[in-house]
Amino acid sequence: TIVNLHQRLENYNDDLTKAEDEVDRLSAQINDSKLNELKKELEEANRLFEDEKKVTSDLTEKINHLTETIEQLEEETRELRVSSVDQILQDKDDKIDNLE
């Protein structure tokens, strides 16, 4: 009976060791799975961030282009005003000259 108990105890210990090994293996798989999920989430976040950076860059480029266009239009408007004033003055001078 003692031998039988001893044998059963060894079997239980072997089973316990096998179960512990299986738990360790499954725990490692779970950790790997969680790491893979986190890696995928991080990759997706990085992709979204890069997309956002591209959109921001594109918008900045468009704003800069529009700013340049506005500055050019403002300069052209000033030139037209000066030209118009000069023309008006010239026309008045011509009228005055014609009156004399």
Write a structural description.
The chain has 100 residues and is an all-alpha fold. The radius of gyration is 43 Å and the shape is rod-shaped. Helices cover 98% and strands 0% of the residues. The relative contact order is 0.03. It starts with a helix and ends with a helix. The chain has one helix at 2-99.
**What share of residues is helical?**
over 70%
> How many strands in all?
0
Individual helix count: 1
Order of helices and strands: H
- Please state the structural category: mainly alpha
Low-confidence stretches: none
Mean pLDDT: 94
Approximately what portion of the residues adopt beta-strand conformation? Answer: under 5%
- Mind describing the biggest β-sheet? none
Q: What is the gyration radius calculated from CA atoms?
A: 43 Å
Shape: rod-shaped
Which terms summarize this structure?
single chain; 100 residues; mainly alpha; rod-shaped
Short summary:
The protein is mainly α and 100 residues long.
Compile the SSE list and pairings:
Layout: H1 2-99
